[in-house]
Protein backbone atom coordinates (compact mmCIF):
# COMPACT_ATOMS: atom_id res chain seq x y z
CA UNK A 1 0.00 0.00 0.00
CA UNK A 2 2.74 2.40 1.02
CA UNK A 3 4.53 1.99 -2.27
CA UNK A 4 1.46 2.83 -4.29
CA UNK A 5 0.71 -0.66 -5.57
CA UNK A 6 -2.96 -0.20 -4.59
CA UNK A 7 -3.38 3.35 -5.82
CA UNK A 8 -2.62 6.89 -4.77
CA UNK A 9 -5.29 7.22 -2.05
CA UNK A 10 -4.16 4.09 -0.19
CA UNK A 11 -0.53 5.18 -0.43
CA UNK A 12 -1.33 8.59 1.05
CA UNK A 13 -3.42 7.06 3.82
CA UNK A 14 -0.75 4.51 4.69
CA UNK A 15 1.93 7.19 4.71
CA UNK A 16 -0.02 9.07 7.37
CA UNK A 17 -0.53 5.94 9.49
CA UNK A 18 3.15 5.00 9.23
CA UNK A 19 4.12 8.49 10.39
CA UNK A 20 1.76 8.22 13.37
CA UNK A 21 3.07 4.72 14.10
CA UNK A 22 6.65 6.04 14.10
CA UNK A 23 5.78 8.80 16.56
CA UNK A 24 4.25 6.29 18.98
CA UNK A 25 6.89 3.63 18.30
CA UNK A 26 4.31 1.12 17.11
CA UNK A 27 5.87 -2.23 16.21
CA UNK A 28 3.43 -2.95 13.40
CA UNK A 29 0.04 -2.25 11.86
CA UNK A 30 -3.07 -4.16 12.88
CA UNK A 31 -6.37 -4.66 11.07
CA UNK A 32 -9.42 -2.75 12.27
CA UNK A 33 -13.01 -3.97 12.11
CA UNK A 34 -14.67 -0.58 11.82
CA UNK A 35 -14.08 3.15 11.66
CA UNK A 36 -15.99 6.16 12.96
CA UNK A 37 -15.04 9.30 11.08
CA UNK A 38 -15.26 12.77 12.63
CA UNK A 39 -15.05 16.12 10.84
CA UNK A 40 -18.28 15.77 8.89
CA UNK A 41 -19.98 19.11 9.56
CA UNK A 42 -19.27 21.97 7.18
CA UNK A 43 -19.28 24.18 10.27
CA UNK A 44 -16.20 22.44 11.67
CA UNK A 45 -14.23 21.52 8.54
CA UNK A 46 -15.11 24.47 6.29
CA UNK A 47 -14.04 24.95 2.70
CA UNK A 48 -10.60 23.38 3.20
CA UNK A 49 -12.16 20.19 4.57
CA UNK A 50 -14.66 19.99 1.74
CA UNK A 51 -11.89 20.37 -0.86
CA UNK A 52 -9.74 17.77 0.92
CA UNK A 53 -12.57 15.22 0.82
CA UNK A 54 -13.43 15.86 -2.83
CA UNK A 55 -9.76 15.54 -3.72
CA UNK A 56 -9.58 12.23 -1.86
CA UNK A 57 -12.54 11.00 -3.94
CA UNK A 58 -10.77 12.01 -7.17
CA UNK A 59 -7.76 9.98 -6.02
CA UNK A 60 -9.98 6.90 -5.76
CA UNK A 61 -10.30 6.63 -1.96
CA UNK A 62 -12.78 4.00 -0.75
CA UNK A 63 -13.69 2.52 2.63
CA UNK A 64 -12.41 -1.02 3.08
CA UNK A 65 -14.10 -1.65 6.44
CA UNK A 66 -17.43 -0.62 7.92
CA UNK A 67 -17.24 3.16 8.26
CA UNK A 68 -19.81 5.41 9.90
CA UNK A 69 -19.85 9.19 10.17
CA UNK A 70 -20.17 11.69 12.97
CA UNK A 71 -23.02 14.21 12.94
CA UNK A 72 -23.21 16.58 9.98
CA UNK A 73 -24.06 20.27 10.25
CA UNK A 74 -27.79 19.85 9.61
CA UNK A 75 -30.67 17.45 9.24
CA UNK A 76 -29.87 16.16 5.77
CA UNK A 77 -33.47 16.04 4.62
CA UNK A 78 -35.20 18.63 6.78
CA UNK A 79 -32.58 21.37 6.91
CA UNK A 80 -35.06 23.96 5.70
CA UNK A 81 -37.24 23.26 8.74
CA UNK A 82 -34.16 23.98 10.90
CA UNK A 83 -33.73 27.25 8.95
CA UNK A 84 -30.21 26.36 7.91
CA UNK A 85 -28.96 28.86 5.29
CA UNK A 86 -28.97 27.45 1.78
CA UNK A 87 -25.26 28.11 1.02
CA UNK A 88 -24.29 26.15 4.14
CA UNK A 89 -26.70 23.35 3.17
CA UNK A 90 -25.32 23.02 -0.37
CA UNK A 91 -21.78 22.64 0.94
CA UNK A 92 -22.87 20.18 3.61
CA UNK A 93 -24.58 18.05 0.97
CA UNK A 94 -21.38 18.03 -1.10
CA UNK A 95 -19.47 16.74 1.94
CA UNK A 96 -21.98 13.93 2.40
CA UNK A 97 -21.86 13.01 -1.26
CA UNK A 98 -18.04 12.84 -1.07
CA UNK A 99 -18.30 10.38 1.83
CA UNK A 100 -20.96 8.44 -0.03
CA UNK A 101 -18.81 8.07 -3.09
CA UNK A 102 -16.04 6.74 -0.82
CA UNK A 103 -18.55 4.01 0.16
CA UNK A 104 -18.91 5.23 3.73
CA UNK A 105 -22.15 4.72 5.58
CA UNK A 106 -23.76 8.16 5.85
CA UNK A 107 -25.40 7.43 9.17
CA UNK A 108 -24.40 10.71 10.79
CA UNK A 109 -24.34 10.08 14.50
CA UNK A 110 -22.07 9.94 17.53
CA UNK A 111 -23.88 6.84 18.85
CA UNK A 112 -22.90 4.43 16.04
CA UNK A 113 -22.85 1.64 18.66
CA UNK A 114 -26.66 1.86 18.94
CA UNK A 115 -27.27 1.77 15.20
CA UNK A 116 -25.29 -1.02 13.62
CA UNK A 117 -21.61 -0.19 14.25
CA UNK A 118 -21.16 -1.99 17.56
CA UNK A 119 -17.71 -3.52 18.02
CA UNK A 120 -17.31 -6.70 20.01
CA UNK A 121 -15.24 -7.21 23.15
CA UNK A 122 -11.48 -6.85 22.45
CA UNK A 123 -12.04 -6.02 18.78
CA UNK A 124 -9.73 -3.30 17.42
CA UNK A 125 -11.38 -0.33 15.71
CA UNK A 126 -10.29 3.20 14.74
CA UNK A 127 -12.83 5.71 15.98
CA UNK A 128 -12.61 9.47 15.99
CA UNK A 129 -15.50 10.71 18.08
CA UNK A 130 -14.36 11.18 21.65
CA UNK A 131 -17.66 10.21 23.30
CA UNK A 132 -18.03 7.12 21.10
CA UNK A 133 -14.38 6.20 21.72
CA UNK A 134 -15.03 6.22 25.44
CA UNK A 135 -18.17 4.10 25.06
CA UNK A 136 -16.44 1.60 22.76
CA UNK A 137 -13.43 1.19 25.06
CA UNK A 138 -15.18 1.30 28.42
CA UNK A 139 -18.70 -0.07 28.01
CA UNK A 140 -18.12 -2.48 25.13
CA UNK A 141 -14.49 -3.43 25.83
CA UNK A 142 -13.46 -2.78 22.22
CA UNK A 143 -10.09 -1.14 21.54
CA UNK A 144 -9.49 2.22 19.96
CA UNK A 145 -7.16 5.14 20.40
CA UNK A 146 -8.41 8.70 20.20
CA UNK A 147 -8.18 9.03 16.45
CA UNK A 148 -8.47 12.33 14.64
CA UNK A 149 -10.54 12.84 11.49
CA UNK A 150 -7.60 12.28 9.07
CA UNK A 151 -6.22 9.15 10.78
CA UNK A 152 -9.70 7.61 11.01
CA UNK A 153 -10.17 8.26 7.28
CA UNK A 154 -6.78 6.70 6.61
CA UNK A 155 -7.79 3.62 8.64
CA UNK A 156 -11.02 3.36 6.68
CA UNK A 157 -9.12 3.45 3.37
CA UNK A 158 -6.45 0.97 4.45
CA UNK A 159 -8.29 -1.12 7.05
CA UNK A 160 -5.28 -0.68 9.37
CA UNK A 161 -4.11 1.28 12.40
CA UNK A 162 -0.73 1.38 14.17
CA UNK A 163 -0.49 -0.93 17.17
CA UNK A 164 0.00 1.33 20.19
CA UNK A 165 -1.85 2.98 23.09
CA UNK A 166 -5.19 1.47 24.01
CA UNK A 167 -4.80 -1.43 21.57
CA UNK A 168 -2.28 -2.87 24.05
CA UNK A 169 -3.27 -4.66 27.29
CA UNK A 170 -0.74 -2.80 29.42
CA UNK A 171 -2.27 0.59 28.64
CA UNK A 172 -5.80 -0.45 29.54
CA UNK A 173 -5.19 -1.08 33.23
CA UNK A 174 -6.51 1.41 35.79
CA UNK A 175 -4.09 4.14 36.83
CA UNK A 176 -6.20 5.91 39.49
CA UNK A 177 -9.02 4.99 41.85
CA UNK A 178 -11.85 7.49 41.97
CA UNK A 179 -13.88 7.45 45.13
CA UNK A 180 -17.21 9.13 44.37
CA UNK A 181 -18.54 10.52 47.62
CA UNK A 182 -22.02 11.40 46.54
CA UNK A 183 -24.99 9.51 45.16
CA UNK A 184 -25.56 10.20 41.48
CA UNK A 185 -29.24 10.79 40.88
CA UNK A 186 -29.68 11.47 37.18
CA UNK A 187 -28.07 11.96 33.76
CA UNK A 188 -26.72 15.40 34.63
CA UNK A 189 -24.95 14.09 37.73
CA UNK A 190 -23.07 11.58 35.54
CA UNK A 191 -22.23 14.30 33.06
CA UNK A 192 -20.93 16.59 35.85
CA UNK A 193 -18.88 13.77 37.36
CA UNK A 194 -17.27 13.03 33.99
CA UNK A 195 -16.41 16.67 33.47
CA UNK A 196 -14.95 17.00 36.99
CA UNK A 197 -12.81 13.88 36.45
CA UNK A 198 -11.55 14.92 33.02
CA UNK A 199 -10.47 18.28 34.36
CA UNK A 200 -8.85 16.87 37.46
CA UNK A 201 -7.02 13.97 35.80
CA UNK A 202 -6.35 15.03 32.21
CA UNK A 203 -5.40 11.73 30.70
CA UNK A 204 -5.49 8.43 32.62
CA UNK A 205 -7.56 5.28 33.11
CA UNK A 206 -9.80 5.79 36.15
CA UNK A 207 -11.42 3.00 38.15
CA UNK A 208 -14.58 4.56 39.54
CA UNK A 209 -16.05 3.35 42.79
CA UNK A 210 -18.02 4.50 45.80
CA UNK A 211 -21.49 5.15 44.50
CA UNK A 212 -24.21 2.71 43.58
CA UNK A 213 -24.50 2.71 39.83
CA UNK A 214 -26.66 0.78 37.45
CA UNK A 215 -25.67 -0.31 33.96
CA UNK A 216 -27.57 2.51 32.30
CA UNK A 217 -26.14 3.07 28.81
CA UNK A 218 -27.41 6.65 28.66
CA UNK A 219 -25.67 7.58 31.90
CA UNK A 220 -22.47 5.85 30.78
CA UNK A 221 -22.46 7.60 27.41
CA UNK A 222 -22.77 11.02 29.00
CA UNK A 223 -20.18 10.19 31.69
CA UNK A 224 -17.62 9.23 29.03
CA UNK A 225 -18.49 12.16 26.76
CA UNK A 226 -17.78 14.65 29.56
CA UNK A 227 -14.51 13.00 30.64
CA UNK A 228 -13.29 13.21 27.07
CA UNK A 229 -14.30 16.88 26.84
CA UNK A 230 -12.59 18.43 29.85
CA UNK A 231 -9.76 15.87 29.70
CA UNK A 232 -8.47 13.23 27.33
CA UNK A 233 -9.83 10.15 29.08
CA UNK A 234 -10.69 7.47 26.53
CA UNK A 235 -11.25 4.52 28.87
CA UNK A 236 -12.72 4.16 32.35
CA UNK A 237 -13.69 1.17 34.47
CA UNK A 238 -16.54 0.74 36.94
CA UNK A 239 -16.65 -2.51 38.95
CA UNK A 240 -19.45 -4.80 37.78
CA UNK A 241 -20.55 -2.39 35.06
CA UNK A 242 -17.93 -1.78 32.38
CA UNK A 243 -16.69 -4.52 30.09
CA UNK A 244 -13.17 -5.13 31.42
CA UNK A 245 -13.88 -4.54 35.10
CA UNK A 246 -14.17 -8.31 35.69
CA UNK A 247 -10.55 -8.72 34.57
CA UNK A 248 -9.29 -6.27 37.20
CA UNK A 249 -8.13 -7.92 40.41
CA UNK A 250 -8.12 -6.41 43.88
CA UNK A 251 -4.30 -6.55 43.77
CA UNK A 252 -4.24 -4.42 40.58
CA UNK A 253 -5.76 -1.58 42.59
CA UNK A 254 -3.56 -1.79 45.66
CA UNK A 255 -0.94 0.84 44.93
CA UNK A 256 -2.94 3.25 42.79
CA UNK A 257 -3.43 6.88 43.70
CA UNK A 258 -6.87 7.48 45.24
CA UNK A 259 -8.83 10.60 44.42
CA UNK A 260 -12.14 11.67 45.96
CA UNK A 261 -14.85 13.56 44.14
CA UNK A 262 -17.88 14.84 46.00
CA UNK A 263 -21.03 16.89 45.52
CA UNK A 264 -19.17 20.19 45.93
CA UNK A 265 -17.04 19.42 42.83
CA UNK A 266 -20.15 18.61 40.81
CA UNK A 267 -21.80 21.83 41.96
CA UNK A 268 -18.68 23.78 41.02
CA UNK A 269 -18.66 22.33 37.48
CA UNK A 270 -22.33 23.17 37.03
CA UNK A 271 -21.79 26.76 38.09
CA UNK A 272 -18.70 27.09 35.95
CA UNK A 273 -20.47 25.86 32.81
CA UNK A 274 -23.60 27.95 33.32
CA UNK A 275 -23.61 31.12 31.27
CA UNK A 276 -27.30 31.62 30.35
CA UNK A 277 -29.75 33.44 32.57
CA UNK A 278 -32.95 33.05 30.61
CA UNK A 279 -32.71 30.14 28.17
CA UNK A 280 -35.50 30.11 25.60
CA UNK A 281 -34.58 26.95 23.77
CA UNK A 282 -34.18 23.40 25.12
CA UNK A 283 -31.69 21.18 23.30
CA UNK A 284 -31.24 17.50 24.19
CA UNK A 285 -29.03 14.88 22.62
CA UNK A 286 -25.32 15.44 23.24
CA UNK A 287 -24.37 12.61 22.78
CA UNK A 288 -27.29 11.83 20.50
CA UNK A 289 -30.51 10.76 22.23
CA UNK A 290 -31.16 7.05 22.50
CA UNK A 291 -34.57 5.56 21.78
CA UNK A 292 -35.13 5.33 25.55
CA UNK A 293 -34.38 9.01 26.08
CA UNK A 294 -36.79 9.95 23.29
CA UNK A 295 -39.34 7.72 25.03
CA UNK A 296 -38.87 9.63 28.30
CA UNK A 297 -39.28 12.97 26.51
CA UNK A 298 -42.37 11.71 24.66
CA UNK A 299 -44.00 10.58 27.90
CA UNK A 300 -43.44 13.97 29.52
CA UNK A 301 -44.80 16.05 26.63
CA UNK A 302 -47.54 13.79 25.30
CA UNK A 303 -50.79 15.75 24.94
CA UNK A 304 -49.19 19.02 26.15
CA UNK A 305 -48.42 22.24 24.29
CA UNK A 306 -44.79 23.34 24.69
CA UNK A 307 -44.10 26.86 25.91
CA UNK A 308 -40.46 26.75 24.79
CA UNK A 309 -38.74 25.34 21.75
CA UNK A 310 -37.57 21.77 22.30
CA UNK A 311 -35.12 20.07 19.93
CA UNK A 312 -34.03 16.47 20.43
CA UNK A 313 -30.98 15.48 18.37
CA UNK A 314 -30.57 11.87 17.38
CA UNK A 315 -29.55 9.51 14.61
CA UNK A 316 -31.79 8.88 11.62
CA UNK A 317 -32.10 5.19 12.57
CA UNK A 318 -33.02 5.95 16.19
CA UNK A 319 -35.59 8.44 14.94
CA UNK A 320 -37.13 5.79 12.69
CA UNK A 321 -37.38 3.35 15.59
CA UNK A 322 -38.84 6.06 17.83
CA UNK A 323 -41.33 6.93 15.11
CA UNK A 324 -42.69 3.39 15.14
CA UNK A 325 -43.17 3.61 18.90
CA UNK A 326 -45.10 6.87 18.64
CA UNK A 327 -42.40 8.94 20.39
CA UNK A 328 -41.73 11.27 17.49
CA UNK A 329 -45.40 12.11 16.96
CA UNK A 330 -45.82 12.78 20.70
CA UNK A 331 -42.83 15.18 20.72
CA UNK A 332 -43.68 16.90 17.46
CA UNK A 333 -47.40 16.96 18.29
CA UNK A 334 -46.52 19.03 21.38
CA UNK A 335 -44.53 21.45 19.22
CA UNK A 336 -41.04 19.99 19.65
CA UNK A 337 -38.74 18.74 16.95
CA UNK A 338 -36.72 15.54 16.56
CA UNK A 339 -33.66 16.55 14.56
CA UNK A 340 -31.64 13.88 12.75
CA UNK A 341 -28.07 13.65 11.39
CA UNK A 342 -26.73 16.65 13.29
CA UNK A 343 -26.24 17.96 16.81
CA UNK A 344 -26.47 21.20 18.75
CA UNK A 345 -22.70 21.69 18.70
CA UNK A 346 -21.88 21.13 15.03
CA UNK A 347 -24.98 22.76 13.51
CA UNK A 348 -24.89 26.51 12.87
CA UNK A 349 -27.15 27.43 15.83
CA UNK A 350 -25.82 30.98 15.81
CA UNK A 351 -27.15 31.43 12.26
CA UNK A 352 -30.60 30.15 13.07
CA UNK A 353 -31.45 32.43 15.92
CA UNK A 354 -30.60 30.26 18.92
CA UNK A 355 -28.62 32.13 21.56
CA UNK A 356 -29.54 30.74 25.00
CA UNK A 357 -30.00 27.04 25.56
CA UNK A 358 -31.01 24.75 28.40
CA UNK A 359 -29.41 21.30 28.06
CA UNK A 360 -28.42 18.25 30.10
CA UNK A 361 -24.93 17.92 28.60
CA UNK A 362 -21.66 19.27 29.98
CA UNK A 363 -20.04 18.57 26.61
CA UNK A 364 -22.52 20.88 24.89
CA UNK A 365 -22.15 23.45 27.67
CA UNK A 366 -18.38 23.36 27.15
CA UNK A 367 -18.44 23.90 23.38
CA UNK A 368 -21.52 26.02 22.65
CA UNK A 369 -20.25 29.36 24.02
CA UNK A 370 -17.00 29.25 22.03
CA UNK A 371 -18.19 27.52 18.84
CA UNK A 372 -21.58 29.19 18.44
CA UNK A 373 -21.67 32.10 20.88
CA UNK A 374 -24.63 30.37 22.54
CA UNK A 375 -25.02 30.70 26.30
CA UNK A 376 -25.99 27.62 28.28
CA UNK A 377 -27.77 26.51 31.44
CA UNK A 378 -27.74 22.93 32.72
CA UNK A 379 -30.48 20.69 34.13
CA UNK A 380 -31.26 16.95 34.11
CA UNK A 381 -33.23 15.73 31.09
CA UNK A 382 -36.57 15.56 32.88
CA UNK A 383 -36.19 19.09 34.24
CA UNK A 384 -35.24 20.36 30.78
CA UNK A 385 -38.43 18.88 29.35
CA UNK A 386 -40.54 20.26 32.19
CA UNK A 387 -39.08 23.69 31.47
CA UNK A 388 -40.08 23.35 27.81
CA UNK A 389 -43.60 22.38 28.86
CA UNK A 390 -44.12 25.02 31.53
CA UNK A 391 -41.96 27.81 30.11
CA UNK A 392 -40.19 28.64 33.39
FE1 LIG B 1 -22.26 13.98 19.73
FE2 LIG B 1 -22.30 16.44 18.84
FE3 LIG B 1 -22.24 15.98 21.42
S1 LIG B 1 -21.11 14.79 18.03
S2 LIG B 1 -21.22 14.03 21.67
S3 LIG B 1 -23.88 15.42 20.02
S4 LIG B 1 -21.03 17.46 20.33
What distinguishing features does this structure have?
5-stranded parallel sheet; alpha/beta; globular; 15 strands; 4-stranded parallel sheet; 392 residues; 14 helices; binds FE3-S4 cluster
Q: TL;DR of this structure?
A:
With 392 residues, the chain is an alpha/beta fold. Helices cover 41% and strands 16% of the residues.
Question: Could you please describe the fold and organization of this structure?
Answer:
This protein has helices at residues 8-23, 42-58, 86-101, 130-140, 149-158, 187-201, 217-230, 250-253, 263-273, 291-301, 316-324, 327-333, 362-372, 381-390; strands at 29-31, 34-37, 66-69, 105-108, 126-127, 160-162, 176-180, 206-209, 237-238, 257-261, 281-289, 309-314, 337-340, 356-359, 375-378. It is α/β, with parallel strands linked by helices and 392 residues long. The protein has a 5-stranded parallel β-sheet, sandwiched between helices. The longest helix is centred in the N-terminal third of the chain and has 17 residues, at 42-58. The chain is globular. It starts with 7 loop residues before the first helix and ends with a helix. The chain binds FE3-S4 cluster. FE3-S4 cluster binds next to strand 11 and helix 13.
Amino acid sequence: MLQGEYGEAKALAMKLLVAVGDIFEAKRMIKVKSVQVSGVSYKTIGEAGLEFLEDLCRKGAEATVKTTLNPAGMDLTEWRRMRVPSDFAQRQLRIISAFKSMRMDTTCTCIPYFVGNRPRFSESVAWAESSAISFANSVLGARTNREGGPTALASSITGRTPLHGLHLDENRRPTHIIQVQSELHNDLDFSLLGYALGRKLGSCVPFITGTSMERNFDYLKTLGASMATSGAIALYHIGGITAESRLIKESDLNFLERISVGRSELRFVKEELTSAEGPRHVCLGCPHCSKEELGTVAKLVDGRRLQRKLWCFTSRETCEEAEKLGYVSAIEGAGGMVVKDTCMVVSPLEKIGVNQVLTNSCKAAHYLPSLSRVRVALAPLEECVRFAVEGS
